[in-house]
From TrEMBL, chains A, B:
InterPro entries per the UniProt record, alphabetical: ArsR-like_HTH, HTH_ArsR_DNA-bd_dom, HTH_MetalResp_TranReg, WH-like_DNA-bd_sf, WH_DNA-bd_sf
UniProt cross-references to SUPFAM superfamilies, sorted A to Z: Winged helix' DNA-binding domain
Keyword annotations from UniProtKB, A to Z: DNA-binding, Transcription, Transcription regulation
Species annotation: Actinophytocola xanthii
Annotated protein name in UniProt: Transcriptional regulator
Any GO molecular function: DNA-binding transcription factor activity
Residue ranges of every copy of the HTH arsR-type domain listed in the record: 11-105
Keyword Transcription regulation: yes
PROSITE patterns hit by this protein: HTH_ARSR_2
Record-linked Pfam families: HTH_20
Database matches in PANTHER family: TRANSCRIPTIONAL REGULATOR, ARSR FAMILY, TRANSCRIPTIONAL REGULATORY PROTEIN
Amino acid sequence: MPLGRWASVAHPEIDAVELDDVLHALADPTRRTIVRMLLAEGDRACGTFGLPVAASTLSHHFRALRKAGILRQYDEGRQRMNTLRLDELDARFPGLVSTVLDAAK
Amino acid sequence: MPLGRWASVAHPEIDAVELDDVLHALADPTRRTIVRMLLAEGDRACGTFGLPVAASTLSHHFRALRKAGILRQYDEGRQRMNTLRLDELDARFPGLVSTVLDAAK
């Protein structure tokens, strides 16, 4: 868990997270790659994913994942960090994230 | 399996079905209800689902499910029937449909 404060952006309570929003958020290969990297390697700053998409597009993807309750963002110095909400998601939608990631293999 | 012919509409080969399309198609409560009813009760004509949505909306939902490879449609007399492609989907995306349906409970 991060030591810094949550970024000044909205994070939905897990009970308010809708399945439809999670499915839409995971219905994109770049967003699934972000989730997979966070799952495999832990918290990570937005600028360090090395994905072949424009910064504005990447920003859109992080926002979609955050609004769907899939990740939290917090500020650490000048970096915006991302952390997966896997335990919360697994409690609310058992096995969903891993099943979707496996399906994409 | 149906005895009638497939309806004269496009059905993607299962290998051409994209995960993104399946997730988008399942990201809707009415479409999940259609899938759940087909799963529980077998093949069924479009007009017999008794869902509280307009016929045009329902038609849109069946089309979305068909294009995503989730169901097949065939004509039987004057009725358009629907059949779930569960075995094919489970071979391609193991456990995905049941995990999503369970998550919606």
